[in-house]
Design brief:
By secondary structure, this protein is of the alpha/beta class. It has a single domain, classed as Glutaredoxin (3-Layer(aba) Sandwich). The protein contains 5 helices and 7 strands, in the order H-E-E-E-H-E-H-E-H-E-E-H. The protein has helices at residues 7-24, 84-100, 117-127, 138-148, 178-188; strands spanning 56-58, 63-65, 74-79, 105-110, 132-135, 160-163, 169-172. The protein has a 5-stranded mixed beta sheet. Strands 1-2 form a two-stranded antiparallel sheet. Helix 1 (7-24) packs parallel to helix 4 and helix 2 (84-100) packs across helix 5. Pfam families: Thioredoxin (PF00085). Residues 23-50 are annotated as: Disordered. Residues 24-190 form the Thioredoxin domain. This is TlpA family protein disulfide reductase. InterPro entries: TAT_signal, Thioredoxin-like_sf, Thioredoxin_domain.
């Protein structure tokens, strides 16, 4: 019998490790939480927002980018192309994008290891989505799980996260509407 490790299994272990570390204490270990651009990436809960610095490839424009390099608020949605809950959430994202796309960067990152850039490009085109789509590298998914918990890596949970230009983040409730996204942007990032 071989010991096959799946991405999901690794993420579950990483989430359990992070939860245990939080229970056992930790706090400030002297780690520098300042990003290259001077932003403080310390989230205040013992984890850092390194996931914002991970380089992503926009499957729709074939361009590299990172959340940290974006000088606008970012609406980040983790999803999978097969997920019907995710598609419903993307409907709200589409409404918010139509009204705010010039002032806010919208990013959908798949956390499904079976989705590839071609799948994302097709998904965006078929649904008329005009924002960025990328495959979340493992280090980004681990960072998101460390900061927000395991549900961020479960597509049907379809979480939406706001990342403000100062590096601060806010997780929104499941099934958030376009107006709720806009209100959260106003309250947290603008």
């Amino acid at each position: 019998m071989t010991d096959e490790r799946t991405r999901r299994g690794v993420l579950l272990a990483a989430g359990a490790t992070a939860a245990l570390a939080g229970c056992l204490g930790g706090g400030d270990d002297g780690e520098d939480t300042t990003a290259d651009d001077g932003r403080d990436t310390d989230t205040g809960d013992g984890s850092s927002a390194d996931w914002q610095s991970v380089t992503l490839m926009d499957a729709t424009a074939d361009e590299e980018f990172s959340i940290a390099e974006t000088d606008q608020p970012v609406v980040l949605h983790t999803f999978a192309t097969w997920c019907s809950t995710c598609r419903r959430q993307q409907g709200s994202l589409a409404d918010a994008y139509d009204r705010n796309g010039d002032d806010v960067t919208f990013v959908d990152v798949t956390i499904d290891e079976n989705d590839d850039p071609d799948d994302l490009r097709s998904h965006a085109e078929e649904n008329g989505f005009g924002w960025r789509f990328a495959v979340a590298p493992a280090e980004m998914t681990r960072g998101l799980v460390d900061q927000f918990g395991q549900r961020v890596a479960v597509a049907p949970q379809s979480p939406v996260i706001l990342a403000c230009p100062d590096g601060s983040t806010t997780e929104l409730d499941k099934g958030v509407s376009a107006s709720e996204i806009e209100s959260a942007l106003d309250e947290n990032c603008r």
